[in-house]
Specification:
alpha/beta, Aspartate Aminotransferase, domain 2, Aspartate Aminotransferase, domain 1, 2 domains, three-stranded antiparallel sheet, binds pyridoxal-5'-phosphate
């Protein structure tokens, strides 16, 4: 059996670099609760992303739940089902109702032309997802949110390091959530962040990620625990030093894929967006009228020990856990359903070897 090629492989800094970074933690014995590494990473990310505020959390999912609670949202939140389980679950777990809008078939992101028809007097927010390193139509979404007085919260888990006309993806809408999970372009092993320009959100976000505790004798909120620890923050500080090189290496892999798979009948590759500097987070291929179906390609790769991912599949409005709930109907978002049935993301990580990309393409084309 040939060596396993997984769909992703976490990028790591040199071992010695991480050891040097955690040296201070041994000296201080301060392991969590917004220590020096936590503060240093928030500051470094504020600079890197060009955003006024970064709040670090245990993971991206709890960051989403935190911001829904910080805004005290109750009612309907317009989102799309072409996403990871987390986005929809966060809305439901916080007691809100997701209202599913279909996606644009080119960018895979929410279709702004279909949002206004879904707005009711119960709508409180829009929660769109930047997908694969593509950005949503942020101008259109901003206009709709402003016009209807809705909060605009981005699930930006896929878009760390992406910018549009020089503005980082952390700066759109009211708040952007990033995931720093091990599989993401930038990671802190597990981790997440909320990015926002409104300083007045900061205290409540902080309180809610620490049991709702505001001061030693003051507990104004029913908060959970979502504090990023010092070891994770230290990983982030190391990762940030290498991120530029890693994104560049990802770009090389993507260009290699494009050179091999571009122009093949029945294969649709992701279209670069005008003015958008991508992070090359994923390489989705849509098998639409190709000689092999998506599932067949998935199996052919699997037989050669190569793991691709049906991502996103199934879409969240067809999950078992939501069966029978009103409003959860994949047929109501036909484009998302169509894409989900045909898309496969291919292995992609900074040190994926050129010969492995060739092997993968040979199997797909063979
Ligand atoms: C990874 C991811 C999340 C969840 O982030 P975690 O850090 O794993 O909790 C949410 N939304 C999307 C689109 C993701 O890809």
């Amino acid at each position: 059996m040939s060596e396993l090629i997984n769909v992703t492989r976490s990028a790591l800094p040199p071992f010695e670099e991480y050891c040097a970074e955690i040296r201070d933690i041994w000296d201080s014995h301060w392991l969590t609760n917004m220590g020096e590494k936590h503060q240093a990473l928030e500051k470094a990310l504020q600079e890197y992303l060009g955003v006024r505020n970064v709040s670090l959390l245990t993971n991206g999912h709890l960051a989403l739940e935190n911001i829904i609670e910080t805004y005290d949202l109750h009612g309907e939140i317009i989102t799309s089902p072409f996403t990871f389980a987390s986005t929809t679950h966060a809305i439901v777990r916080c007691g809100c109702t997701p209202v599913f809008c279909d996606i644009d078939p080119v960018s895979y992101t929410i279709d702004p032309n279909k949002i206004e028809a879904l707005i009711t007097d119960k709508t409180v927010a829009i929660l769109p997802i930047h997908v694969y390193g593509n950005l949503c139509d942020t101008d259109a979404l901003e206009r709709i949110a402003k016009k209807h007085g809705l909060k605009l919260i981005y699930d930006a888990a896929h878009s760390f390091g992406v910018s549009k006309n020089g503005v980082s993806s952390a700066c759109f809408g009211d708040v952007s959530m990033f995931s720093f999970h091990a599989t993401k372009v930038f990671h802190t092993i597990e981790g997440g962040a909320l990015c926002y320009n409104d300083d007045s959100l900061r205290q409540r976000i902080s309180d809610l990620k620490n049991f709702g505790i505001h001061g030693p004798e003051e507990v104004p909120f029913i908060g959970g625990n979502a504090k990023m620890n010092e070891f994770c923050a230290a990983m982030g500080l190391c990762e940030l030093r290498h991120l530029g090189a890693w994104i560049e290496a990802r770009r090389g892999v993507v260009e290699h894929y494009r050179a091999r798979l571009g122009g093949v009948k029945g294969l649709r590759l992701n279209a670069p967006q005008k003015g958008v500097e991508s992070n090359y987070a994923y390489f989705p291929v849509v098998f639409d009228g190709y000689k092999y179906g998506r599932d067949e390609v998935f199996d052919r790769l699997g037989a050669q020990n190569i793991v691709a991912r049906k991502y996103f599949y199934p879409i969240t409005n067809s999950f078992d856990c939501y069966k029978g709930r009103p409003g959860f109907d994949p047929d109501a978002t036909p484009i998302a359903k169509y894409m989900a049935e045909r898309v496969l993301t291919l292995p992609l990580y900074p040190d994926l070897a050129a010969r492995d990309v060739d092997r993968i393409c040979d199997i797909i084309l063979g």
